[in-house]
């Protein structure tokens, strides 16, 4: 028993010794918006001002009904007066008595004055997004200690306001990142800088306090197994050590291999301090007039700008949010993210390290910049906190003119890795990063330039414009240009803030904040899926599954480090039109195709594969993540019509003509046409009237249908206009079959050589619409310059009135254009009907979405036809916040058609079959 007690005491002593050797933390606040601690709080202006209460820390006080909400362009003078006063009592562990104790703030907006037990901890910290600390060892006492913090939302340093506050984003106040105490042994490691190159060269700079004489370093792999020999060296205050490691597993976004470096500080043989750092072996190299190389491979960055943001908590986030954000970016097949426009939470960089995402880390500065003294201090804080993350491959000194050039030299001097420095929106350091240039980037800058092209912002999203709209054209040019290093979209998520002063309304400050690919709560918009396909690292060459198809697909490997044989491919054949779909599925052998090379994927399809409607191919990465699912229609619309549209019946077609109309009946269906114009006036079935009328009205064409005649051909009735080249060159023909099917055939010429869209419209009251079911590409709407991201199938959608980027952020939207229509069932509240086509590449359009408030430039220009429901041969494109549709590339330009007055004249055609019966023939 005595021996056991002694052993127990030894274990306790060993545990205490090990604990004493490590840096210890005691959180005074919570760790994020999902874990907070209440502090006493008082705000001097705005909501709930001038009274002591409590507030969760970390947080932005506006989100808890204090102060006043401000967007960056808001000139409200209250911004300069708001201050938050915080109080919190805490106790320090008794065993910390002999230690150095720091109080650490990971982020506070903006000027922060700290007192412990009534005494100042040091100079007021100015700058919101940086980790700062004070040594409070001499200010502490046993028992309760009082922490007092005064936070001024607006800085007394005008350069801080210019860099951080006068910006195109929400301006918040408060201690928005965690606060904790840090206990260190008297002799300890103060800072470690690490450089680990792809060739295995490991270099570290260690800064330690006096009182120790030796240091050792050991690397461990993910399994905790020691990697390489231990490094031992004598140390006094600072030392730089180097070592070669053999064949390390390299870090990249595709293979984010990490090691752990354990640093142990000794006094003689006694361990006095240990710390651990994550290490990624990788090399970043910029080759002038060539490109950016990671581990020797030339990169194309598929990036996005990202704010630290969440709608219910402002700039206060959590590790869970960081994980969700990075996973969504990688789900879109992105490989890079730019910090906009300030350093992020440390846990976001941790996640980028572990999941694999290249990072451009940015010293704050929107259009203004820090003065040199302030910027020097804040840059050092950013560097000390962020420098060892392998995910960071670029530094950025401010944004869009917010560059203090006097700070440039400090990045290289303080960074052991010597990562490249970027001036976003400038030609600097061999990079052309100009924002929001037209598709061709300007003569002399794109195809004829000499710098590495890497726009740090392009395709500025707003509402539903930008992002996926235009990206296919841009990316095709970027991918094929040797000088292009890709670019960064603006931006990741809608900046929608939950307004506690407006009953929870999610406020994007009009058109300032709805710039995201996803909504405030990460709702996926249509562009999300378009980006996912356009930026897929596996590119499928267009392929028609015609007779004789042998299952071979030409593919290109657009990975940088992954062979396609490390991916998996699954196929699935589906027959969609039966009440219960039938299918066959299997896997395809992944071909060995090296990065940036082309090859063939062979799918061994079963006999009878042409009896199915569609072939789906899903590619998955080495980690099992779905890269994309491509769909390839097998049946054509004409085959669908032949299969589903029943023309014969026992009943006969009858027609009655009067002065004004043709009235036709067949199989319980009654249709009325205007005798002069030929337009549909009335539809009725056994359930009653269907309010689908007043069509076809040509869009971008003239309704010059004239001189209608009626005739009976066999068992059908045909009503058709007369063609005359000068005055009635557009023609309309209706055919009514015994089954009640009504066929419409229009041949028409657009009014102009260039047209925004072409097709025909019908009237249908929006209040009657309940939903649709259709066969075509879905489930998201499309634009002329955003056709990617959908799959071919049968889709059912309920009516909604959602506008992209506005509450309730409900996706997919209902109104808009849809592509590759085979048939559509329009489900009314009292009656329904179906429309088929035997033509390929037909669009249908549902009503006109709300046009959200554009900028004064009116660049988005989301144009829709007249009336309510349309069937189109060509649809319109959409612009971005900064560009009109036609400047986003060829797909954004207007349609071009031949002049019908020149020989040979080419008319557009539209053939539709209307089934107004109460039967479901699908």
Give a brief rundown of this model.
It contains nine helices and 64 strands. With about 900 residues, it is mainly beta. It is elongated and about 110 Å long.
Properties at a glance:
922 residues, mainly beta, Jelly Rolls, Immunoglobulin-like, TIM Barrel, 6 domains, nine-stranded antiparallel sheet, seven-stranded parallel sheet, 9 helices, 37% strand, elongated, disordered N terminus, EC 3.2.1.23, hydrolase, Bact_Beta-galactosidase
The total tally of domains equals 6
State the separation between the terminal residues, measured CA to CA.
83 Å
Total E-strand runs: 64
| Envelope shape | elongated
Query: Widest sheet: strand order?
Result: 50-51-52-53-64-60-59-56-57
Overall pLDDT level: 93
Largest beta-sheet characterization: 9 strands, antiparallel
Domain Glycoside hydrolase family 2 catalytic: 284-411
Subunit structure: Monomer.
Cofactor: Ca(2+)
EC number: 3.2.1.23
What does this structure look like?
Keywords: Calcium, Glycosidase, Hydrolase, Signal. Residues 716-829 form the Beta galactosidase small chain/ domain. Pfam families: Bgal_small_N, Glyco_hydro_2, Glyco_hydro_2_C, Glyco_hydro_2_N. The chain is mainly β and 922 residues long. It has six domains: 17-184, Sandwich (Jelly Rolls); 189-279, Immunoglobulins (Immunoglobulin-like); 292-534, Alpha-Beta Barrel (TIM Barrel), CATH 3.20.20; 538-633, Immunoglobulins (Immunoglobulin-like, Sandwich), CATH 2.60.40.10; 645-749, Distorted Sandwich (Beta-galactosidase, Chain A, domain 5), CATH 2.70.98.10; 758-905, no CATH class. Helices cover 11% and strands 37% of the residues. The strands form 16 sheets. It has a nine-stranded antiparallel β-sheet with strand order 50-51-52-53-64-60-59-56-57, covered by helices on one side. Strands 29-28-27-26-25-34-33 form a seven-stranded parallel β-sheet. Strands 3-2-5-11-8-9 form a six-stranded antiparallel β-sheet, with no helix packed on it. The chain is elongated.
